[in-house]
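Work Package 3 (structural annotation) set out to generate three-dimensional models for the target panel prioritized at the project kickoff. During this period the team completed the workflow that converts sequence records into discrete structure tokens, so that structures can be stored uniformly alongside our sequence database. As a representative example, we reproduce one entry of 235 residues exactly as it appears in the project archive.
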Amino acid sequence: MEAGSTKINREERIVNIGYFLIAGFIGYILGSTPFGFLYVKAKTGKDIRTIGSGRMGGTNSYRAGGIAIGILTALSDFLKGFLAVWAAIWLFQDKVDPALLSWIKMTGGVMAVIGHNWSVFLKFKGGAGTGPNVGWAAGIWLPVLPIGLVIMLGFFWIIGMASVVSMTMAIIIPVIFGIRYFMGIDPTPAYMIGGLITCFAVGWALRPNFKRIAEGNERIVGPRAKRMGQEQQAN
């Protein structure tokens, strides 16, 4: 009886590993899809990798293709992470217990960020991961979306540095899930750990921006850039 139970447990572990691999693969392929590159190419014929920061995210797509392309890219990038989580839910929620499902969902979401930053379709280049990072977190707990929008729009208006906005949100996500875990709302620390992983991934991608900030050369965009331009004209 004990030998049979061991065999079942071994087979169950193998199946569970398969679930993780499937969720991770789906997340990575979703994340790797370079929507910013495709949208800018379709509208302007230009290669976004040669414009601005060279990244595929909403900010650089806005620089390369205009506000509509920027918004479309940001929404598409958000959906990468969101759909990666929900793909895991749709596929596996009836196959595993809630605790294990939390780790599988996290795997799909984190891999969407990894795929976005290091896309297999673009020789492992990509963006900074902000869109899919907010997306996977919102897929876990939807209020992350309005919280994120308020924070990001506020920082964008005041500071005008997309990199600071991205990093701030990357830090807030594991804080939110850490609070939820320690309050007993989430069954495991999976989402908090996933947030820490994506925080590192976003920070790693933003290293050139941090260097420019330290040198005082970081790009200012949006309303603050306009305000600075008006101040310079007034002077």
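Residues 230-235 have pLDDT under 50 and may be disordered.
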